[in-house]
User: What shape does this take?
Amino acid sequence: MRTAIVERPLEPAALLREVASHGSGATVLFVGTVREVNDGRAVSGIDYSAYTGMAARELDAIAGEAAERFGTPYVVVEHRLGTLGLGEASVAIAVSHPRRAPAMDAARFVIEELKRRVPIWKREHYADGTREWVDPTAGAAPGVVPAGR
Amino acid sequence: MTVTVLLFASYADALGASSVELPLPASGTVRDVVSALARLPGGERLPPAPLVAVNQVYASYDGLVGAGDEVAVIPPVAGG
Assistant: This one.
């Protein structure tokens, strides 16, 4: 199990190699990439920033929870910070496990918890030259401590 | 006592700083930190009850804040 917050391009193939194990019959790789449209607006890039100390701790906790809950030590997660262009990878999650279902469930668990808990923010650049912080909770009750904390 | 409060992303923009020093009573709470922040110039742009972390762990508003604690106000997260 390993997690990292990095400021260099991600190499998903390296994560796949890292979780390789002869005991694993299933390997799952999730890669999150910068998409050209969000909420109907043309996006040209995204700045990612973080509360790096806490983000590293939360990411590590999530990977540990996934390892424990789904029963595999082969969980590797990297999240990139900085300015990313369209199609560039912001997050990569690799999991291997003897069986396919828990491998997929573990990868899903990591990305959903990451989006809920890890203090990372993104500021989208739009084709019209403006930039805005993304607020996934817009329209929801503000300031609610994430469930389970 | 004085506590240093870390600000990020849209909240740093709102207060025009990535950290602020706040005077706090000796047995001050997270709630006191949020109230003091709201009174700063730009503080009215924060939501009424933002998330707060103390020593890098999400904290409840009744939690105590001591000198030397690392306090951070956490905007809605958007990783991935």
User: Anything to note?
Assistant: Chain B has one domain: 2-74. DSSP finds two helices and five strands in chain B. The longest strand of chain B covers residues 2-7.
